[in-house]
Structure formats: C-alpha cells, structure tokens
Amino acid sequence: QVQLVESGGGLVQAGGSLRLSCAASGRTFSSYGMGWFRQAPGKEREFVAVIIGNSGRTYSADSVKGRFTISRDNAKNAVYLQMNSLKPEDTAVYYCAAKSPGPGILTSPAAYDYWGQGTKVTVSS
User: Fold this and answer.
1) Interval 5-30: pLDDT, tens
2) Residues 6+ apart with CB under 8 A from 94
C-alpha cells in the first residue's frame, strides 16, 4: 500500500511562486507515474502535470505550461510541483496521485491508484 501526503500550499499574491511536495510512504515503485491534479470549489478535478516513472517524460496542462514544472526524486519517494507566475485562477486544492504501470489516460483521475489528501493553494489578486 502507498500513502501520499502533500505539503507546501498556502496564500500567495499573484505573480508569486510556491513549491508543492508530495511524500510517499509504504511500498513505492520507481515505475509508477506521479501526477498532480487540482480542484476548485464547484469544479471538476483537473489534470495539472504528470511525470512518467520509467522514461521520466513529463506532460502538463496547457493552462500551466511555461509556469509549472513537475519533478521527482525516487530515492526520497517524493514528487514536486514548482509553481511560478501564479494567477488567481490557480486557486484550488492540489492533489498528488500515483499510477501503477500499464495503460491508462494520464490526464484522467480515474487512471490513478493512490491519492493524497490535498494541500490548499490560494492566489490573491
């Protein structure tokens, strides 16, 4: 079993930066894909970014390209999301998620096996 815990959220002014961390405990495999999703009140949970376990390839949503960067440190069982040039529309609860090897739609929450409890990010204008 894998447990995920996010941290690093908070209140920041527009244009500022935050770095989110996701720490994993339990059995963690380097082959797992690790993703970040976010959910604002009254909205669907949406894909933010993912890093593939084997290849290290990354994909990100159009809304965050050029501003957010996902990375991982398998030795520390951790994944990070560096968020720069934050906008008020980035305000949401951010979740990290782990996907076991195999086929799946990487942008879909349904493809992921494990989820953290989320960390809140509020960007003020």
Assistant:
1) 999 999 999 999 999 999 998 776 78
2) 6, 9, 20, 36, 37, 38, 48, 81, 118, 119, 120, 121
